[in-house]
Amino acid sequence: MTYTVKELFYTLQGEGAQAGRAAVFCRFAGCNLWSGREQDRATAECTFCDTDFIGTGGPGGGKFATADHLAATARALWDSETDGSGIPYIVCTGGEPLLQLDIPLINALHEKGFEVAVETNGTLPAPAELDWVCVSPKRLDKLVQTSGHELKLVYPQPDLPPEDVAHLDFKYFFLQPMDGIGPDAENIRLENTKKCVEYCQAHPKWRISLQTHKILGIA
Known about the structure:
Distance between the termini: 28 Å
Radius of gyration: 17 Å
Strand order of the largest sheet: 3-1-2-4-5-6-7-8-9
Strand content: 25-35%
Number of strands: 9
Low-confidence stretches: none
Structural class: alpha/beta
CATH class: Alpha Beta
Number of domains: 1
Shape: globular
CATH architecture: Alpha-Beta Barrel
Helix content: 10-25%
Number of helices: 4
Order of helices and strands: EEEHEHEEEEHEH
C-alpha cells in the first residue's frame, strides 16, 4: 500500500510512560473520528483534537510507495540525528495511525532496528507485532483495543469518565489535561490540569501525563 504521512521528524517523546525518550515520530494523515477540518469540528466524534493531520505538508511528510521506503527514510533520520547509542524508537501517531500502520510496515521497521510504538484512539485492533501500544480513547462505544501498555485518557471528557476504562488490561493509566481551544485556551488548560491533579490524588491507580514537549518548546 501507499503510506500517506503528514510529517516524519526526530524529537523526544513528550507524554506518558516513555516521556523524555528520543524518538522518530511518524504522523500519518487521516483519522476516523474527525476530518481535521475546523468546519467539521462541532459535528465530529472527537471535537478536541489539537493536531494537524491533513495532507503531507509537514516536515518529512509525503507519500511512500512501499513499507521498505518509509522504514529506510525513518532509519536515515534516526542515524542523522543520533550518535548511534540507544535502541532506535519510532512512534506511529496521527490522526489515527492504524488506518495505515500494517504488519508489512511494522516488520520493515523492525528490520531497520526500531522498537515500534503506536498512539491510537483504540477504535481499530492493534497488531500483536507492535512493541508498545498506547490507547487514548475518545469513544467508549467504539473502543475495540482494550489492552496494551498504557491507557492515556484526555481529561475531562463528559462522556468518558476514567471509571469507565479503569478496569481494562493496561500496565499504566494516565490522565492528560485537555487543552483548550479558542481565546480562553490557557485558562481551560490550567483548570483541566487542576482537575487531573485532584483526580490522580484521589485515585492513585492513575498518574498525570503532561505534554512536556509543549512545556519544553520542542516538536
